[in-house]
Write a structure and sequence with these properties.
The chain is α/β, with parallel strands linked by helices. About 40% of the residues lie in helices and about 20% in strands. Strand 3, helix 2 and strand 4 form a beta-alpha-beta unit.
Length: about 250
């Protein structure tokens, strides 16, 4: 692991991680190699997908309900490649996500259920150098997830029904890892786990099946750029994040 910030939690201090993402495949594009390293070290990782990805795919012959079911199964299969067995879905409409109080409450609920030390999420900021991570759903989920981390999930008086009706007490997340934003301060060398990341993305066949050999080439180009920016030797591959202390 390559660090450019000094306040990142050591993995030995982390028991659980929650990844909150907008669509099936988002976590695999942004963080599957890093997640595989965490699970290899015995850290429990839970995925929370805000939508089912029902607006994705390329097949006009499949209904949107069928696409949603397919993408759920693809995400579960992809999660196994990274060592993750707990995948949850909120069922919001793909392409229509907004950072509402309802979404903040739904994410806060899962934070209080899982009680993670670390939360991974998309950036709420637009990335003008690489527009693809800046899908409106990504930015809305990043905004709502960050608000759920601070202040909602830790405040016992925010969404009091979570405690009164569901017995979910307040929980403080110690740090967040933001993926896909315009700035980064932390990189993880995933060279030895590249094949697992690639297999996770290939599990999303409805989204990546048409790419063939272009998929690994695209990934290597992108990840090698991250590695070079982090000062890693030539030939290494890295995922990059903005790590924010939130305790």
């Amino acid at each position: 692991m390559v660090e450019t910030v000094t306040n990142v939690l050591d993995d030995s201090e982390v028991r659980r991680v929650l990844a909150v993402m907008a669509h099936p495949d988002d976590v695999d594009f942004g963080a599957a190699g890093t997640v595989a390293g965490w699970t290899d070290r015995g850290i429990e990782v839970v995925y929370l997908m805000v939508t089912d990805g029902d607006a994705g795919g390329f097949d006009d012959g499949i209904t949107r309900a069928e696409m949603a079911a397919l993408r759920r199964e693809e995400q579960r299969a992809a999660a196994k490649c990274a060592g993750v067995g707990d995948v949850r879905f909120l069922g919001y409409s793909d392409g229509r996500v907004e950072a509402t109080l309802e979404l903040r409450r739904d994410i806060s609920r899962v934070i209080r259920q899982v009680r993670p030390d670390r939360v991974v999420m998309p950036s709420p900021e637009r990335n003008y150098e690489r527009i693809y991570p800046s899908h409106p759903d990504h930015r809305a989920v990043g905004s709502a997830a960050l608000d759920a981390v601070y202040p909602d999930a830790r405040n016992p008086y925010a969404f009091p029904e979570l405690l009164a009706e569901e017995g979910l007490g307040a929980w403080t997340v110690r740090e967040v890892w933001i993926s896909g934003g315009p700035s980064t301060n932390h990189s993880v060398d995933i060279t030895d786990r590249f094949d697992r990341k690639l297999n996770a993305l290939r599990a999303h066949a409805s989204q990546t099946g048409h790419m063939g050999d272009e998929l690994p080439e695209m990934l290597r180009g992108w990840l090698s750029g991250n590695a070079a920016a982090a000062g890693l030797p030539e030939g290494r591959l890295a995922e990059a994040f903005l790590v924010v202390e939130t305790a």
